[in-house]
Amino acid sequence: MRNTKAFNEAVAETLAELARRGVTLAPATVAETIELQITTVSERLGIQVRSAWRYFDASATADRLAKSHASYEESSSEKDVGQAPMPPIDNPELALVLAGVPDSLAQTGGDLYAVIINVAVNAWMAGHIHGEDGCAGCEGSRGDVGHDWEARMRMISEMQPNITKWFDRDVWTAAVNDTGYTVTRR
Questions:
Q1: Is residue 44 within 8 Å of residue 38, measured between CB atoms?
Q2: Which of 45, 85, 131, 160 has the fewest CB atoms found within 10 Å of its own CB?
Q3: Are residues 54 and 6 in contact, defined by beta-carbon separation less than 8 angstroms?
Q4: What letters, b where the CB count within 10 A reaches 16 and e where it falls short, cover 162-175?
Q5: pLDDT digits (tens, 9 = 90+) for 5-43
Q6: What are the φ and ψ backbone dihedral angles of 51, each rounded to 5 degrees?
Q7: How many CB atoms lie under 10 A from the CB of residue 44?
């Protein structure tokens, strides 16, 4: 379906309608919404996908997407949904996660997906270590410091004394560029 002229025109029209409403969404989000919408119409009416296009309305789709986006924005801003608590700028565990990105980028040959998975797993583990000190499944897996979070932070700081450098965007970007890769917008 995505390789058809009708689909590409529907995405373009819907994005244009969203722009008129002052809403910016990723083209992939709009494409997924349209694909789901057309597939659903086709299945519910028992018709072919190409026939379901006659029921498509870019303006109505843009209205629904804009309303959904506004609803999300309103609920998020009031309750701070989606705003993860940030550790202090000198947190050793966060510094290790940041420092691991350039290394991971070089090791994976620039595979951004693998880098993101690595960061996510390391960030999850850091939260696990801090928040679940009583986890029976982690016994013996944390080295000499065991479940003592403060001792772990001291150990990390001793292993990498200049942890604050990783919180400098320019230093981090230079380290990423030194791997031979860079993330740029198309």
A1: no
A2: 85
A3: no
A4: ebeebeeeeebeeb
A5: 999 999 999 999 999 999 888 888 899 999 999 999 999
A6: -80, -25
A7: 9
